[in-house]
Design a protein that fits this description.
alpha/beta; Sig_transdc_resp-reg_receiver; 2 helices; CheY-like_superfamily
């Protein structure tokens, strides 16, 4: 699971996400940002979006959900 800020110093979070996908990393990605979602998010391949400030409980729940989804994805690949 990768937790990625949408706005990073010197680079957009979307660029990091794109690089992860291009390099074949098959992982769940949670994007956290102080910016509310907008239309440019349609291009980004992420699994969850959190608007900061994010509580510890919200982050834990998002990571748990991502881990569960990753295990389901692994099981599906195993059978198909």
């Amino acid at each position: 699971v990768v937790v990625l800020d949408r706005q990073l110093p010197g680079m957009e979070g979307g660029e990091v996400l794109e690089a992860l996908r291009e390099r074949g990393f098959d992982c769940q990605v949670i994007v956290a940002s102080g910016v509310k979602p907008d239309l440019d998010l349609v291009r980004m391949e992420f699994d969850a979006y959190l608007v900061k400030p994010v509580s510890k409980d919200e982050l834990r729940a998002a990571v748990r959900h991502a881990l569960t989804r990753a295990s389901y994805d692994d099981k599906l690949r195993e059978f198909y």
